[in-house]
Amino acid sequence: MRLAVGAAFRAMSAVQGRPRGLVYEKHGEPAQVLQLKDINLPEMGASGVHVRMLAAPVNPSDINMIQGSYAVLPDLPAVGGNEGVGLVVQIGSNVTSLKPGDLVIPADAGLGTWQTEAVFGEEKLLKMPPDIPLMCAATLSVNPCTAFRMLSDFKTLKPGDSVIQNAANSGVGQAVIQIAAAKGLKTINVVRDRPNLQELVDRLKSLGADHVLTEEALRKPEVKDLFQEIPKPLLALNGVGGKSATEMLRLLQHKGTMVTYGGMSKQPVTVPVSALIFKDVKLCGFWMTQWKRDNAQNKEELNGMITDLCTLIRKGQLTAPACQEVPLVDYQLALKASMAPYVSAKQILLM
Amino acid sequence: MRLAVGAAFRAMSAVQGRPRGLVYEKHGEPAQVLQLKDINLPEMGASGVHVRMLAAPVNPSDINMIQGSYAVLPDLPAVGGNEGVGLVVQIGSNVTSLKPGDLVIPADAGLGTWQTEAVFGEEKLLKMPPDIPLMCAATLSVNPCTAFRMLSDFKTLKPGDSVIQNAANSGVGQAVIQIAAAKGLKTINVVRDRPNLQELVDRLKSLGADHVLTEEALRKPEVKDLFQEIPKPLLALNGVGGKSATEMLRLLQHKGTMVTYGGMSKQPVTVPVSALIFKDVKLCGFWMTQWKRDNAQNKEELNGMITDLCTLIRKGQLTAPACQEVPLVDYQLALKASMAPYVSAKQILLM
């Protein structure tokens, strides 16, 4: 789905009646606590921006935030969703960086993107170039940014170096494969075994994955054969935790680093003392929300990253994840699909 | 025990007969595989240094090396011991940095210090100032150096900042307490509960420990009361692993670092994923042997550290750990004591 600004404006004509949003008044299971209802927009004021939301994905962290198990929680009642793309409808008199017709994405978490219209502060928005496909824009601000930073900020990697990651089929994982390939890095991608494994392997390879293997294969001694072709990884990206993380540590190069950005197994990371002392591996974490806050005063880094990612998108080196577009009214279907195992497609709410 | 050079020379007159050393021909339990026997010294050559060993401690890593479970192992047969102090007797014609009468300590691990005499390469030795007490010199090159580097290389700490460590009664632990106190840092020191706990608490406090508590107390909610007096630690030093390490992680400040240098519990370090992602803690390891190898070409850093540590010793801010001096012939007693639980005194073999 690709909307030029003109088409996006025409889409706006479909907006009828009052703004609506997916609101929760208490934490709990999203299917139970979320309700689609009319919302009152705040006054726009001099520095506000009135945005018509176009599309917003359902990410695992959105679910955790509604469940109340996330590290930052909004004041309640709140609108769900942390990512998405919208169109600027109107701007306050002090707003200088945006104008009506601009495509925008959130510059911070917690804005509440699952609503048809919203008023955000200018500083909470980033302008997107108009030629970026809408699904790319809607899914850019969390996962590709996380992948970009993890591949840039922890190790100096040169073409030919290798990176290992688990959860390779996640939104972050797919972005890691593509950004790494664009940098000339080799990727070793770990996925859970599943029906139609070969289909997934083929899809990840078509994105640029060099090696795709299951958690079980990762534990076998033959995994070492890989390292006749490529060097041992200097960087491991961990979205799973538990045994999967420990196995990746085992394959890391001397002085390698493992960056943890997720814990889908709900298991902690267990690190042999010898890996720390004698192999000199480092463990750290990455959280895009924190990075954005740490860089909130000076948006140069953030804008530079968005520019670089848009360049990759234009070259066809970074695509949106497989998306399932779901009208906002059918949000229950989207929630259900986003929480089902082995569903590769990202659920995108269309406003 | 303090020996000036003159006294040390006189001590040499006690050397009689052939050089002897504690030799092992295969890995195993030290009490079984070590034998005190005559050894043949290699030719001194132009760059060799003939050393009369004076005193050498029994460290946990010496035991592990003999057991065969250490990360680096010498060719067999080998002489045990990695640390100690000796007196230069004779030098090769190309040796410029040392002269007969100099006190020396090892600049690298694996030299084999449990022998009455030895020939080492000049580059393997560091000159010690003659006014440093012998027990300080004998125990300087591993534990105080480890403590010094861990307090310097991982976090920028300013007076008033706090550091938490377990194994606070170990050789490294006691050095951490003293070096941290000299830097104006506050220390939280975790020890295992034991008979005569108060005696240990008093001793560590006399070294400069601000707070001493047991593993059990560390797990209680009241531990938080500490942080009304001092800030949460930015740095945790882990010589134990297992639950003890996890508890220290829990108390670390946001963006704090835990450095692992030992694993006395023989348990891995378990890290909650949330600590990595949301608290942004880092985990890394430190191994003095590796540091010395990384800095082998340029001894400036190493010599600078030794100079700084000697300054602390002269000011009375760094003392040798409680030592039990044991004649070399009674090495079986020293081995037994060094492996017994709750023995605080370091066993020092006198040659």
From TrEMBL, chains A, B:
Domain of life: Eukaryota
Cellular compartment(s): Mitochondrion
UniProt keyword terms in alphabetical order: Fatty acid biosynthesis, Fatty acid metabolism, Lipid biosynthesis, Lipid metabolism, Mitochondrion, NADP, Oxidoreductase, Transit peptide
GO MF term (any one): enoyl-[acyl-carrier-protein] reductase (NADPH) activity
GO cellular component: mitochondrion
EC number: 1.3.1.104
Family matches, as Gene3D superfamilies: Medium-chain alcohol dehydrogenases, catalytic domain, NAD(P)-binding Rossmann-like Domain
Domain Enoyl reductase (ER): 31-349
CDD domains assigned: ETR
GO biological process annotation, one example: fatty acid biosynthetic process
A Pfam family assignment: ADH_N
InterPro entries: ADH-like_C, ADH-like_N, ER, GroES-like_sf, Mito_Enoyl-ACP_Reductase, NAD(P)-bd_dom_sf
PANTHER family hit by this protein: ENOYL-[ACYL-CARRIER-PROTEIN] REDUCTASE, MITOCHONDRIAL
Family in the record: Belongs to the zinc-containing alcohol dehydrogenase family. Quinone oxidoreductase subfamily.
Protein name stated in the entry: Enoyl-[acyl-carrier-protein] reductase, mitochondrial
Species this protein is from: Eublepharis macularius (Leopard gecko)
Upper taxonomic lineage: Eukaryota, Metazoa, Chordata, Craniata, Vertebrata
Gene: MECR
